[in-house]
């Protein structure tokens, strides 16, 4: 080795420690020492390594390789010169190192000839690491090498122990204040940040937005792809949001898939809304995990604004949480601002909740039953269970008077349990009255999403000593959004309760966020078409098409279809003709209590008009005439309405070929009735009516609306004339079919 072991060399090395290296810490400190050794003592490689927990390996934490920093790596001690360095505290191999350690591949690969290593010990003289210098050339001065390594090893030891204590302190702080997965502030730290933001707001008079975000669809990712995929999504969401918010803002993870975002130094709520919309768009973008695309993630965000909401940090987070649930209720993938005025209403609702809880305990609630008509035999084979509150002052209250108050409260669990118990008791009573009928029981989303829901049903049956055979007559209705919250959970719950005989129906079908695409994934027995489609079906061709499509699709998946909300015989007939398995609505019967239902069912006979769609008596022609009449009435009503509102631009198609009845005449009308004399008469009068209506519209447009009532009266007369021809055609058709 070049140079002699003398005081001057050691003094220079020591001076370097107290000057250039004194401001450095940890890995930077070690690297600088290693570099100095290489540049001044003829070595090519020098490194500092920490012993791992097993004491069988070393982790190189820093070093210098020729002219650049050394890449960190791990290696096993056994069979290397480091093993002897630890055994003897210090070792030097001036040359021939490869012969001494033939199994050390590293030495051969790097063509190493010489090695010097010294153990790094703690205050108890236990080995905690290695400081080594190696070279492809022999060491000329072993004593100088030993002096230098021993000089530096003491300082490295002190720094390693100091740095370890500092790291442990940082680790403790990290555990206390930061989420281990995302490295974001946790609940403890975010409350402190909110307090600081509030204090600063009082100085700069800006506003602070406290936002609580919950991921939509996250549970399903965890269930279907595993927790590693869930962790990946949580970290990815964190990084996406961090790229959007500013350094002065804070993102924290409360736990699970809940995050808090604190936006500071903003002028208006609109400013916050723009930031939140960017966050929503980013979170809802697709994720890629192990070559699998995840498109089901979105976010619901609740926001409380300080000082508009002049509350403390915990209350602001709680208010944001309440607003977040509103965002979920409104369809998810959106944000919702906490309404301070609404909060006053919430306090009032709290009193109402106490009254409802007491009403349950006092037996003031009662089950009502609405019949469902089976299309196969036109009989009543099932009922939907509904609840009523026999209020001591207000009288009988419908569900919309009390359910919205409790559906997001813990009280819903108690209420749902009451409904299930009463339904099972009703089954027993029906059986005693020799009434064989099934009950469809509504369960709240909050209850159904509990992992213990299936077990709760079993516990209720056990507590009531109810035979499981009753479950074969029970159907549980869940909302579409509730079922799609986690398809895995839904299917597991359905499968578990199917084993007991309980079937499942998807309620309000068509109103959720992913209806048709999930039918193949859900192990559902029945779907219920929402009344919003049924009620406008005869007036709105789009609704009619949707109803028809849902029924057709359900047949593909072998799922039964129930349509609710049939309020007229025309709607009922069309639903049955489309292929609905069951229909319910006021046309069949209104909800009624137990005693009234027993009277109803014992005297029930099907409406004779229903037989035109019976599978045993196929009279399609009768239905087609009913459809023709309905189409014509609707068209004429639109014409009259546009005149009365003096808005002719909203009048329906005036061409006799493009209106509904015109299309019907060319297609199904011609198919069923073209051979009958009255059909030709219907074609002529329909064309005449359109001609007359066109003339009236032209006159109104030219001369104004002074004579509008005269024109309306004429249009009504024309409508009645056409309907009389349809009735004439119906009689002729009936004679022809005898």
How would you describe this protein?
It is a single chain. This protein is an alpha/beta fold. The chain has four domains: 7-175, GAF domain (Beta-Lactamase), CATH 3.30.450.40; 187-338, Reverse transcriptase/Diguanylate cyclase domain (Alpha-Beta Plaits), CATH 3.30.70; 349-604, TIM Barrel (Alpha-Beta Barrel), CATH 3.20.20; 621-736, Four Helix Bundle (Hemerythrin (Met), subunit A).
Radius of gyration: 40 Å
Strand content: 15-25%
CATH superfamily of the largest domain: EAL domain
The CATH architecture classification of the largest domain is Alpha-Beta Barrel
Q: Give the neighbour order of strands across the main sheet.
A: 15-16-18-19-20-21-22-23
Count of extended strands:
23
Query: Oligomeric form of this entry?
Result: single chain
Segments where pLDDT lies below 50 for 5+ residues? 1-5, 614-618
Query: What is the average per-residue confidence, as pLDDT, rounded to a whole number?
Result: 85
Largest sheet entry: 8 strands, mixed, barrel
CATH topology-level fold name of the largest domain: TIM Barrel
Shape: elongated
State the share of residues found in helices, binned by percent: 40-55%
Whole-Å distance between the termini?
122 Å
Structural class: alpha/beta
Q: How many discrete structural domains?
A: 4
Tally of separate helices: 26
Question: What is the CATH first-level class name of the largest domain?
Answer: Alpha Beta
């Amino acid at each position: 080795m070049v140079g002699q072991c003398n005081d001057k060399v050691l003094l220079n090395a020591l001076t370097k420690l107290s000057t250039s290296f004194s401001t450095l810490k940890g890995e930077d400190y070690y690297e600088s020492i290693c570099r100095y050794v290489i540049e001044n003592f003829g070595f090519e490689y020098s490194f500092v390594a920490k012993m791992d927990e097993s004491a069988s390996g070393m982790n190189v934490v820093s070093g210098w390789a020729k002219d650049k920093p050394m890449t960190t790596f791990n290696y096993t001690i056994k069979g290397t010169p480091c093993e002897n360095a630890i055994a003897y505290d210090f070792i030097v191999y001036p040359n021939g190192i490869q012969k001494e350690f033939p199994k050390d591949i590293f030495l051969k690969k790097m063509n190493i000839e010489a090695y010097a290593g010294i153990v790094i010990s703690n205050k108890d003289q236990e080995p905690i690491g290695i400081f080594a210098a190696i070279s492809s050339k022999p060491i000329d001065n072993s004593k100088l090498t030993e002096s230098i390594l021993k000089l530096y090893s003491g300082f490295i030891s002190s720094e390693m122990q100091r740095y370890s204590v500092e790291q442990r302190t940082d680790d403790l702080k990290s555990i206390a204040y930061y989420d281990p997965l995302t490295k974001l502030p946790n609940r403890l730290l975010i409350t402190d940040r909110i307090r600081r933001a509030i204090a600063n707001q009082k100085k700069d008079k800006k506003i602070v937005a406290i936002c609580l975000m919950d991921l939509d669809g996250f549970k399903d990712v965890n269930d279907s792809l595993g927790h590693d995929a869930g962790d990946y999504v949580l970290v990815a969401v964190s990084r996406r949001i961090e790229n959007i918010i500013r350094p002065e803002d804070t993102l924290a993870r409360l736990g699970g898939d809940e995050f808090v975002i604190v936006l500071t130094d903003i002028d208006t709520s609109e400013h916050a809304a723009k930031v939140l919309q960017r966050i929503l768009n980013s979170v809802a973008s697709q994720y890629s995990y192990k070559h699998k695309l995840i498109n089901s993630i979105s976010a619901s965000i609740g926001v409380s604004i300080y000082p508009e909401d002049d509350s403390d940090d915990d209350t602001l987070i709680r208010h944001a949480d309440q607003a977040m649930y509103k965002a979920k209720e409104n369809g998810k993938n959106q944000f919702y601002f906490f309404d301070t005025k609404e909060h006053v209403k919430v306090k009032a609702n709290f009193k109402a909740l106490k009254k409802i809880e007491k009403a349950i305990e006092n037996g003031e609630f009662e089950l009502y039953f609405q019949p469902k008509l089976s299309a196969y035999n036109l009989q009543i084979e099932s009922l939907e269970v509904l609840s009523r509150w026999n209020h001591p002052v207000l009288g009988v209250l419908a569900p919309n008077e009390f359910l919205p108050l409790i559906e997001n409260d813990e009280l819903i669990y108690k209420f749902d349990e009451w409904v299930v118990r009463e339904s099972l008791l009703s089954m027993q009573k029906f059986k005693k009255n020799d009434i064989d009928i099934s009950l469809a029981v509504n369960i709240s989303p909050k209850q159904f999403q509990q992992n213990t829901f299936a077990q709760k049903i079993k516990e209720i049956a056990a507590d009531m000593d109810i035979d499981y055979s009753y479950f074969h007559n029970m159907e549980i209705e869940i909302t579409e959004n509730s079922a799609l919250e986690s398809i895995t959970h839904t299917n597991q719950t359905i499968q578990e309760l199917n084993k007991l005989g309980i079937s499942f129906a998807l309620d309000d079908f068509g109103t959720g966020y992913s209806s048709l695409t999930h039918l193949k994934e859900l192990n559902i027995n029945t779907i219920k078409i929402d009344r919003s489609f049924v009620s406008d079906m005869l007036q709105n061709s789009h609704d009619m098409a949707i109803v028809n499509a849902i029924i057709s699709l359900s047949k593909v998946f072998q799922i039964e279809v129930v349509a609710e909300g049939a309020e007229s015989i025309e709607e009922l007939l069309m639903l049955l003709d489309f292929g609905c398995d069951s229909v319910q609505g006021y046309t069949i019967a209104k909800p009624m209590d137990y005693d009234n239902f027993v009277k109803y069912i014992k005297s029930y006979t099907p409406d004779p008009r229903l037989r035109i769609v019976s599978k045993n008596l196929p009279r399609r022609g009768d239905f087609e005439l009913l459809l023709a009449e309905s189409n014509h009435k609707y068209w004429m009503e639109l014409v009259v309405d546009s005149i009365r509102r003096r808005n002719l631009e909203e009048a329906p198609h005036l061409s006799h070929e493009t209106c509904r009845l015109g299309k019907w005449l060319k297609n199904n009308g011609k198919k069923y009735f073209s051979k009958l004399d009255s059909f030709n008469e219907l074609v002529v009068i329909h064309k005449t009516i359109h001609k007359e209506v066109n003339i009236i519209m032209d006159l109104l447009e030219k001369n104004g609306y002074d004579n509008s009532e005269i024109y309306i009266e004429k249009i009504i007369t024309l409508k009645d004339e056409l309907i009389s021809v349809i009735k004439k055609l119906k009689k002729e058709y009936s004679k022809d079919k005898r």
